């Protein structure tokens, strides 16, 4: 057993350990709204990412432009029934594409193995439902990433940014106090989840939702455009309160060492 003061790392899924760019839900959101003759953009669909998906739909319908378009098309402001209707169309679309976006992000398997080698446990939280995760976890496991505990939307009364999913995972892992835990996430609301739990937080800038491009599209960027998008993503995650921001999970291990050093000096998140 390592002398590490940290006890666990809790990872988000899409954009953090699988689905480079967090692309899977985007088309499903656009298509779901199109079914109601309301056009939304990929950039708009990304704004609430990290939330449970029904609250995500509600947040989209609360955006002034989208709410105005809904009013124009349907003759009334969006209602709770409308949220339910869009969500009911979205869910099967997301389930249908989830397995196609389950490839591990580079470094995820090696990082998980190194975390375990240090004697730490691995947890995970997600804005996805268990039905969606059932399509993803077997593929991730086959590629070398598994979590010791996972909490999904629907497992607790309210999801991110509350700490309830984190508390559920830490209870299953039998890990406390929360300052001995690191939450790794590519969304602002996921960072808030970690902060509200009392954990250290690490934002993932390049592989995740804020950067928002596939691995191939990221590689095709000019050095100037890459640097600009990277800076903007890092600034958003830092503004959300992330203690550290990295490009991707492949860069996590030095941060864990730094946090262990801070804990050894009596520092807390």
UniProtKB/TrEMBL annotation:
<dbReference type="InterPro" id="IPR006323">
    <property type="entry name" value="Phosphonoacetald_hydro"/>
</dbReference>
<dbReference type="InterPro" id="IPR050155">
    <property type="entry name" value="HAD-like_hydrolase_sf"/>
</dbReference>
<dbReference type="GO" id="GO:0005829">
    <property type="term" value="C:cytosol"/>
</dbReference>
<feature type="binding site">
    <location>
        <position position="12"/>
    </location>
    <ligand>
        <name>Mg(2+)</name>
    </ligand>
</feature>
<dbReference type="GO" id="GO:0008967">
    <property type="term" value="F:phosphoglycolate phosphatase activity"/>
</dbReference>
<dbReference type="GO" id="GO:0006281">
    <property type="term" value="P:DNA repair"/>
</dbReference>
<dbReference type="GO" id="GO:0050194">
    <property type="term" value="F:phosphonoacetaldehyde hydrolase activity"/>
</dbReference>
<keyword id="KW-0460">Magnesium</keyword>
<dbReference type="InterPro" id="IPR036412">
    <property type="entry name" value="HAD-like_sf"/>
</dbReference>
<feature type="active site" description="Nucleophile">
    <location>
        <position position="12"/>
    </location>
</feature>
<dbReference type="InterPro" id="IPR023214">
    <property type="entry name" value="HAD_sf"/>
</dbReference>
<keyword id="KW-0479">Metal-binding</keyword>
<comment type="function">
    <text>Involved in phosphonate degradation.</text>
</comment>
<feature type="active site" description="Schiff-base intermediate with substrate">
    <location>
        <position position="53"/>
    </location>
</feature>
<feature type="binding site">
    <location>
        <position position="186"/>
    </location>
    <ligand>
        <name>Mg(2+)</name>
    </ligand>
</feature>
<comment type="subunit">
    <text>Homodimer.</text>
</comment>
<feature type="binding site">
    <location>
        <position position="14"/>
    </location>
    <ligand>
        <name>Mg(2+)</name>
    </ligand>
</feature>
<keyword id="KW-0378">Hydrolase</keyword>
<dbReference type="GO" id="GO:0000287">
    <property type="term" value="F:magnesium ion binding"/>
</dbReference>
<dbReference type="GO" id="GO:0019700">
    <property type="term" value="P:organic phosphonate catabolic process"/>
</dbReference>
<dbReference type="InterPro" id="IPR023198">
    <property type="entry name" value="PGP-like_dom2"/>
</dbReference>
<comment type="similarity">
    <text>Belongs to the HAD-like hydrolase superfamily. PhnX family.</text>
</comment>
<dbReference type="Pfam" id="PF00702">
    <property type="entry name" value="Hydrolase"/>
</dbReference>
<keyword id="KW-0704">Schiff base</keyword>
<protein>
    <recommendedName>
        <fullName>Phosphonoacetaldehyde hydrolase</fullName>
        <ecNumber>3.11.1.1</ecNumber>
    </recommendedName>
</protein>
């Amino acid at each position: 057993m390592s002398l590490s003061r940290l006890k666990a790392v809790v990872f988000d899924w899409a954009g953090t350990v699988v689905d480079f760019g967090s692309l899977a839900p985007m088309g499903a959101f656009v298509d779901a709204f199109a079914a109601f003759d309301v056009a939304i953009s990929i950039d708009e669909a990304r704004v609430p990412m990290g939330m449970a998906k029904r609250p995500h739909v509600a947040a989209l319908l609360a955006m002034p432009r989208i709410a105005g378009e809904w009013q124009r098309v349907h003759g009334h402001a969006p209602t709770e029934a409308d949220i339910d209707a869009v969500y009911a169309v979205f869910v099967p679309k997301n389930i249908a594409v989830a397995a196609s976006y389950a490839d591990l992000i580079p470094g995820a398997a090696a990082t998980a193995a190194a975390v375990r080698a240090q004697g730490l446990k691995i947890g995970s939280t997600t804005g996805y439902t268990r039905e969606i995760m059932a399509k993803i976890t077997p593929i991730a496991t086959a590629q070398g990433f598994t979590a010791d505990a996972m909490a999904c939307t629907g497992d607790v009364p309210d999801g991110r940014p509350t700490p309830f999913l984190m508390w559920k995972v830490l209870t299953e892992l039998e890990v406390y106090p929360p300052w001995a835990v690191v939450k790794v996430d590519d969304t602002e609301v996921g960072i808030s989840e970690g902060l509200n739990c009392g954990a250290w937080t690490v934002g993932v800038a390049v592989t995740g939702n804020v950067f928002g491009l596939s691995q191939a599209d990221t590689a095709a960027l000019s050095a100037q455009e890459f640097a600009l998008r990277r800076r903007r993503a890092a600034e958003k995650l830092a503004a959300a309160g992330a203690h550290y921001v990295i490009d991707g999970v492949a860069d996590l291990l030095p941060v864990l060492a730094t946090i262990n050093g801070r804990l050894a000096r009596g520092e807390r998140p």
